[in-house]
Write a structure and sequence with these properties.
ten-stranded parallel β-sheet, five-stranded mixed β-sheet, 17 strands, MptE-like, DUF115 domain-containing protein, Maf_N
């Protein structure tokens, strides 16, 4: 027997209220009233509470950012001591540690010790204030309503995969009354309906970052099973990557400096073709299964454009297979170039067929190693905002590995079909992390199980899962674009790698794929001589020849036009004002700070934000997390901690500002 009754009058009131904001709500959202009613009938207080009580976890947690033990603390101190962080900017070149953030964390940790708080403690308790609620559906709305009034959240975000899971609460929850209550509390209410798993994180992150940490979760037993399945993403690596992928400030300095060195060499600049070039593309990774695929690839070179992601290049060239494109994306200074230059010397020169497509942050000597080369901007890095003259010069979903660049390049060129070989993202054996024929070596340890592409299970690791997730996100983007744009057709994606399963691709044995290609060409006489790229797809050679070179005049014009000094000063002043303001940390200061990043802005204003996000966004999150841990401390101690933390953040803003001006000085000294 339900502990509440269905009120048709309340349903009518809620419907009238929602129609004021969204006329024709039921029809436009395709709500199934009977299904919504049944969800309500199947819910009761005991049922919902028992389900929630059994949920684990009951809250979301972003990566804990402060140093929480003496060992890590001492390690960070030793890393900082290796660098003259206050000296010449040249001392920071090629530094691969997040020194700026380490320094901030050490100051925050020392302050905790000084005010008598144990910095090693990470225990939190549920409580009110400074909280948020993420609701997966509403169920009857009874428990959700109780949670909102008990926890006093500053944001409530309801996520749906069907609007039935919202309307189910219309019989037992007065939404007009609840919205009035939230307005009175100064709290935000967001209701979002998603269509795909990949939309979940994007939708949540679209309302901010900080509310996701220590967010209380609600889910009804009647919530759509599809949404429950989607929600598993909240407990894994993709969720933590919201923080882990913010980058770090010193790396951004190096990206700017290295890109400036490369662009002043006046390279040919990559640009998306206005119309798709079509054709079949073959992407090679460096996985172990590449070795067994060489002869298949040899035959496919007569029908496919061959694209190598980084080190797989050596395996194909040594076998006499034509490589049309090589993609590189890492900031590797000259060590990576030494590998390729040394290999070319051994082979008697650079193959005439290969076209290098490299990121602006790659070492400029690569342009000498590969006579046919073009440069692109990585979509998430500062050089795009600082030096690009067109959005078409960027490749997105291009990392964290070169195979991501290869895959995205094919998609952006407008491939009809993309087939993967050696893109294992793992191995069938823990003792064989990569092909034995590729360039360089790998330190990866495959200590995780994953669903296989051509077999039930393979071994992988966290870094390879990141590569997988970006490839899958690119596939979804292509598929979504095809639904929106009538003239765009998403590529067909085929995976012939004996590695990890990639969602959105068709799994196929290499021999079977080759057989089908031969069937398609039935009646076409086989050409025995090795074809060139222009023989396979002349449109690609025409596109390549149409690419323009970057010039030193363009470089200095963009530098002066985008004026990084000016926008650095403006952003730093805004940050100092926010941290100096006597407003509550929850939620006022957090909202003001996030506005600096989430408010639409010009490309020029984006430059210092990209540079500082790895330190300042994470720094504010670190303080926020500590406040959650200190929830039960005396108010005066909390006040002292907030005041001291704001002063430390202000000091850090000044340090980064000074370093950024030194970067500007360094680049301008090259004019």
């Amino acid at each position: 027997m339900p502990h509440f009754f269905m009120d048709n009058g309340l349903f009518a009131k809620n419907l009238e209220f929602i129609n004021k904001m969204n006329p024709g709500f039921i029809e436009n959202k395709k709500v199934d009233i009977e299904k919504a009613k049944q969800k309500n009938v199947s819910s009761d207080w005991q049922n919902e509470y028992a389900y929630w009580s059994a949920m684990e976890p009951k809250a979301l947690f972003l990566p804990n950012l402060l140093f929480r033990n003496e060992g890590v603390t001492e390690w960070a101190k030793s890393e900082i001591e290796k660098v003259d962080i206050e000296g010449d900017i040249k001392t920071l070149i090629n530094v691969s540690r997040d020194i700026t953030f380490y320094n901030l964390c050490l100051k925050l940790r020392k302050n905790l010790e000084e005010i008598g708080v144990n910095p090693n403690n990470t225990e939190t308790v549920m409580g009110t204030g400074g909280t948020s609620i993420i609701a997966l559906g509403t169920g009857s709305g009874v428990l959700l309503n109780k949670m909102i009034r008990a926890f006093n959240p500053y944001i409530v975000h309801i996520i749906l995969s069907t609007w039935d899971d919202y309307v189910s609460s219309f019989y037992t929850l007065d939404w007009e009354d609840l919205r009035a209550y939230l307005d009175m509390q100064g709290a935000e209410l967001h209701v979002s309906c998603i269509k795909h798993e990949t939309d979940l994180l994007q939708t949540l992150r679209g309302k901010g970052l900080y509310y996701l940490d220590h967010a209380y979760l609600y889910c009804s037993p009647q919530t759509d099973e599809k949404l429950k399945e989607y929600s598993k993403i909240l407990y894994g690596q993709r969720f933590t990557n919201l923080v882990n992928y913010l980058g770090y400030t010193i790396d951004e300095y190096n990206m700017i400096i290295q890109a400036s060195d490369t662009l002043r060499c006046c390279p040919k600049m990559f640009a998306d073709p206005i119309d798709g070039l079509g054709g079949k593309f073959l992407v090679c990774g460096s996985g172990p299964s590449l070795d067994q695929s060489i002869e298949i690839i040899r035959e496919l070179q007569s029908t496919h454009i061959i694209v190598c992601g980084g080190s797989s290049y050596k395996a194909l060239v040594e076998e006499g297979i034509r490589v049309d494109f090589l993609t590189l994306m890492e900031r590797d200074y000259d060590t990576g170039n030494d590998d390729y230059a040394g290999f070319h010397e051994k082979m008697g020169g650079t193959p005439e067929c290969v076209h290098l497509v490299m990121a602006s942050v790659c070492h400029f000597k690569m342009l000498e190693t590969f006579p046919k080369s073009s440069v692109f901007f990585r979509g998430a890095l500062t050089p795009l905002a600082l030096f690009s003259t067109s959005s078409r010069q960027a490749i997105y979903y291009e990392g964290p590995e070169a195979v991501n660049t290869a895959f995205s390049l094919c998609a952006q060129l407008g491939a009809d079909e993309i087939v993967l070989f050696g893109v294992d993202l793992g191995s069938v054996s823990k003792d064989e992390p990569r092909s034995g024929k590729v360039l360089g070596n790998s330190q990866r340890v495959f200590n995780m199980d994953a669903i296989g592409n051509l077999r039930e299970e393979i071994y992988t690791c966290t870094s390879m899962i990141s590569v997988l997730q970006v490839i899958e996100a690119k596939i979804v983007e292509c598929q979504n674009r095809a639904k929106i744009e009538d003239i765009y057709v998403a590529p067909r994606f085929v995976n012939c790698s004996d590695g990890m399963r990639i969602k959105g691709t068709e799994a196929s044995q290499g021999e079977e794929y080759l057989r089908k290609i031969k069937q398609e060409r039935n009646g076409v006489e086989e050409n025995k001589k090795q074809l060139k790229l222009e023989d396979i797809n002349p449109e690609i050679e025409l596109w390549w020849d149409s690419l323009h070179s970057y010039t030193k005049d363009v470089f200095w014009a963009e530098w002066k036009r985008k004026n990084p000094r000016k926008y650095t000063l403006e952003l730093c002043e805004k940050m100092r004002n926010i941290f100096s303001n006597e407003i509550p940390w929850f939620p006022d200061m957090l909202k003001e700070f996030e506005k600096l990043y989430d408010t639409p802005r010009s490309q020029y204003e984006d430059i210092p934000r990209r540079i500082m996000r790895g330190t300042m966004l994470k720094g504010v999150l670190a303080v926020t997390q500590q406040l959650q841990i200190m929830r039960m401390e005396a108010p005066e101690k909390l006040e002292e901690y907030v005041k001291d933390s704001k002063n430390i953040l202000i000091s850090t803003v000044g340090e980064i500002e000074e370093q950024m001006y030194k970067v500007c000085d360094y680049i301008e000294s090259q004019e």
